Amino acid sequence: MKKEWKTYTPNFRLVEKVRAQLDCSPIMAKILVNRRIYSGEKAAAFLNASLNDMRPPFAIKDMDKAVRRIYDAIVQQEKILIFGDYDADGITATTMLSEFLQETGAAVSYYIPHRTNEGYGLRDTHISEYAVPNGIQLIITVDCGSGDHPAVEKANELGIDIIITDHHSVPNPPNAFAVINPKRKDCAAGFSYFAGVGVAFALVVSLRKYLRDNGFWQNRPEPNLKNYCDLFALGTVADMVPLIDENRILLKTGLEVINSANRVGLEALLKISGLAHKEADAEDIGFKLAPRLNAAGRMGHAHIAVELLMAKDSRQANQIAGTLDEMNCQRQETEKRILAHILAYLDKNPGMLTRKTLVLAHPEWHEGVLGIVASRIVEKYFRPVFLISAKNGIGKGSGRSVPGVNLYESLSACSELFEDFGGHAMAAGLQIRVENIRAFREKFEHTVENMTTESHYSKIISIDDELDFYHISERLADELETLKPFGTDNPEPLFMAHNVAVTYSKILNENHRKMVLRQEKNKHSKSLMAIQFHINPSAPLPEHFEKIAFRVKWNRWQGRKDMQLIIEET
């Protein structure tokens, strides 16, 4: 994989303007300008984002229709079904909407399809074989539904109203009662960065206000929506949507709620994830909490994760959390096995790596982990990847992409080959007949080749600033923490330093290298603790680095905190 180091060169006047207005360090000002924050006022709003800064979501297309219909269903005690997706975003959105409607006294239940047996989205069989026999009068989808035309048509025939809440690309919305999707072409309200749980939260905010305006809360306590922000945080980070604007505001609030341990199920999840005595952050959600929630849908059934988040009894919650932890271990082993299989295949077939894309299929691959494995392949070879589990004549695949290559648009150009497909720019899924896989491989390759240049296949290492060791201080580490939470569109700052010597080195856990690094420059000499993860311990360990790309972090452990560098590239 080609790598290209690029250092931001922000406008000096803008940097100086932000530095003066915010009274921050020049390094901090550069980082903010790199994030397209060009004034002290905007920087302060970004750093001190609070619930008071939220915009009301009532202007989202069809929101007014949806809240009126749900209000009628609550008052008339119609049976409402929440229909969710089986990933962490769908799980948290399902939990949020179900719990809120329970607080209104609504007759509500939920349904999440089995990933392997039923697949993604609302099907016409869900209408005829589940909704009708159970007397469902209103279905509200979360994190799905934007492309489910046959199911909506079936529901319309049978007199069942459907409200779709979703965030997936929607070129042609179904003829549902309401379609709440900020990505609709005819929706100018904004909020297109919301995950499915974000759209569900927007519905809850709007519904609570509509109920208030109609005197509904006079005879029952009005729910505090801050209590739902933990679910928002989990689903938003898990779905890797941009952490900007309302997403940043609600995520910061959600992390506060998570760390207050108000939810029995979440407390059990924190404990089993090794976070009981640590303040969880967005990184912990992404690498510890979300994978365990996702493991339910990947390796079993996602309803287990909903049961955990809705649990009221700590004993039950601990049991479910233990089950999810076991499922996550199974997921990791399955993922390793498939990854090893693919890497061995590519090693024997190097010609595959001359292509701009990789489309691979196998009948024994577990479809629940293919998205994760595809991400690993993208990390290694840096090109769009689709992995397909092909069984009984049908292939179910997951794809991941690289920046600048829109996966959903690429699939749209091949749509005649699919039974079904959907997704986003960077991640997508499909269902395809086995006999069409070869044609898809070639058309996908041709499509991507025509929309890219060689630059798309080089991994860009974006450096915020060249930072000599003598400029690195505890004050800087504290300043950098105010930029949290880090994630999509708000990456953790990455710095570069030249001519660094290793004065101490120790291997930890077989493939992590703990070091003391020293830099001498301009008559200054300074040593700092550092660690580099996932090295090849059998390769020669350098005693000097011409240049390093690193992050500056506090390492907190057992009440102590020490500043250290995390080495990302050398």
CATH topology of the largest domain: inorganic pyrophosphatase (n-terminal core)
Under the CATH scheme, the architecture of the largest domain is Alpha-Beta Complex
How would you state the average pLDDT, rounded? Answer: 96
- Uncertain runs: none
Class derived from helix and strand content: alpha/beta
Number of helices: 18
Short note summarizing the structure:
This protein is α/β, with parallel strands linked by helices. The chain has helices at 12-22, 26-34, 40-47, 63-75, 88-103, 124-131, 149-157, 196-213, 229-238, 245-259, 264-272, 282-299, 303-310, 314-348, 370-381, 407-412, 437-450, 474-481, and strands at 2-7, 79-83, 107-111, 138-142, 161-165, 178-180, 358-362, 385-391, 394-400, 418-423, 427-433, 458-463, 465-466, 495-508, 512-521, 524-532, 544-557, 560-569. 40% of the residues lie in helices and 22% in strands.
Q: How would you describe this structure to a colleague?
A:
There is one protein chain. The chain has 570 residues and is of the alpha/beta class. It has 3 domains: 2-48 and 461-569, Beta Barrel (OB fold (Dihydrolipoamide Acetyltransferase, E2P)); 63-260, Alpha-Beta Complex (inorganic pyrophosphatase (n-terminal core)); 349-452, Roll (Diaminopimelate Epimerase, Chain A, domain 1), CATH 3.10.310.30. It has helices at residues 12-22, 26-34, 40-47, 63-75, 88-103, 124-131, 149-157, 196-213, 229-238, 245-259, 264-272, 282-299, 303-310, 314-348, 370-381, 407-412, 437-450, 474-481, and strands at residues 2-7, 79-83, 107-111, 138-142, 161-165, 178-180, 358-362, 385-391, 394-400, 418-423, 427-433, 458-463, 465-466, 495-508, 512-521, 524-532, 544-557, 560-569. It has a 5-stranded parallel beta sheet with strand order 3-2-4-5-6, sandwiched between helices. It has a 5-stranded mixed beta sheet with strand order 7-8-9-11-10. The two termini are 14 Å apart. The mean pLDDT is 96.
